[in-house]
Predict the 3D structure of the following.
Amino acid sequence: MPTPHINAEDGAFAKTVLMPGDPKRAKWIAENFLVDAKLVTDVRGILGYTGYTKSGKRVSVMASGMGLPSIGIYSYELFTHYGVESIIRIGTCGAYQPGINLFDVIIGQAASTDSDWAQQFNLRGGTFSAVADFDMILAAYSAIVRRGLEVHVGNILSSDIFYDFDPDFWKSWAKLGILGVEMESYALYTMAARLKKRALCILTVTDLFLDSSRKATPEERETGVATMVDIALEIADK
Ligand code: HPA
């Protein structure tokens, strides 16, 4: 049965869904990395595909859109209506710490947030520490190290804000050791926790808060995403 935001048939998704933010990226992944990929949903232009890896694993890829509410909706519907067991977000982030370079990979071991999104879970003003699935962290870490890539594992910030009117706000988070900022992981990890599912976020660094003169070009972003897709496909469950 279709959900309000996904018009796929029952069983249309594999157990593991790769989730980039951008629908065009989902299409690009389906066309370039999957065999026999079929479009299974396109509501609001949020494209989702299911196909096979070259080694024969059935996997899906679907966009999340931007921000905690958007990935919260799509992960909820995939987990509760389509039997999805794990979601691997493939994203980009801005790095907060020295020693992190453009195109390094960050594994979000945990996610913090400046959003009130998790208050829906009746926390009486408390905070929930959102963490990735440990086995998925281990699998991704080994796959990245095996490729000889620079990887950082730690706490990331899922922010509601992209255009911050306070240019120094990020420094409060950087002082707490936050590796970098993006806008979705906290909601994905929390939704997986609430529904007893699994999630991981692998991010490529496309902005440096300590050196704003250096930005990834679109081609460089694509190379970074390709590396993460490769890793995600390797660690995806059947
Ligand atoms: N902020 C939020 N999300 C991001 C950024 C950023 O600077 N860079 C890449 N994703």
